[in-house]
Amino acid sequence: MPLFGNTFSPKKTPPRKSASLSNLHNLDRSTREVELGLDYGTPTMNLAGQSLKFENGQWIAEMGISGGVDRREAQRLRRRNQQLEEENNLLRLKVDILLDMLSETTAESHLMEKELEELKSVSRRRK
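The line above is the sequence of Protein chibby homolog 1 isoform X2; the predicted structure tokens follow.
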């Protein structure tokens, strides 16, 4: 038992083997594409019986699937949604205008009440 020495000395680890035993990384790009099949095509998925494909940055329902919403119906729903959003914005604007009118009228009412109180106090003093 050493007094000033290190009692813990782990064994040296053996050198690691090559990370990949495959020689595919040595192939050129075109051969790799053929070997690995890097041309996937358009991504598709199936959600609740509805088949969708990804085209031009959007998920589009494939035609001929029962239970799905066709493009005309989706377009009609989008138009209706747009109309409702515009109506909602208009109603919010009207509410804001009405609140402004209410606050202005309330302020005027308070000013008139103050003036009335002042006039009453002045008329009481004169009597």
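Note on the example: The first helix runs from residue 29 to 36. The chain has a mean pLDDT of 81.
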